[in-house]
Amino acid sequence: MQMASVTAQTALAKEIGSNTGYQDYLVKTRQIEANERVGLKQAENLKEADIKIIAGAGNVTDGIKNASDALSPKGGYAAAGFLESLASTEEGKKVLEAIAALLKK
After folding, report:
1. Angle of helix 60-70 relative to helix 73-87, nearest 10 degrees?
2. Integer angstrom CA distances of residue 90 from 17, 25, 94, 99
3. Distance (Å, rounded) from C-alpha 9 to C-alpha 14?
4. What are the two backbone dihedrals, phi and then psi, of residue 72, each rounded to the nearest 5 degrees?
5. CA-wise closest residue to 55 among 70, 45, 34, 77
6. Where are the alpha helices (DSSP H) in the chain?
């Protein structure tokens, strides 16, 4: 009885292994499920966030894209680059120190 189960599982594995269309379907289904979970968690976290973004652009669509870029890794790298550049000058260091002092209050 156990051999019948193993034989059926082996046959199924061989069928799936040779069926690239079905494999692609399985992978895409999992990707959709993962994207849905990530999107729901992002929405849940943003619901509680107190974020204000002013996105100056020529139209609403570009403004929304600019705002979403600010929340992406691309925006994070841009902000980090800005702060690093600012910190590399004496004037920039003073600005960052003043901001840090305000945040401590």
Report:
1. 70
2. 62, 56, 6, 14
3. 9
4. -100, 170
5. 70
6. 2-18, 20-48, 60-70, 73-87, 90-104
For residue 92, count CB atoms less than 10 angstroms from its CB and return exposed for 0-12, middle for 13-18, buried for 19 or more. middle
CA dist 54 and 56 (Å) reads: 6
Residue located via tokens 């204000």: 52
Single-letter code of the amino acid located at 30 = R
Calpha distance 52→63 (Å, rounded): 13
> Of 46, 44, 65, whose CA–CA distance to 56 is shortest?
65
User: Which residue do the tokens 């600005």 mark?
Assistant: 95
Q: pLDDT per residue over 36-91, tens digit each?
A: 999 888 888 877 777 666 666 677 677 777 777 777 888 888 888 989 998 999 99
- Per-residue pLDDT of 94-105, as tens digits, reads 999 999 999 988
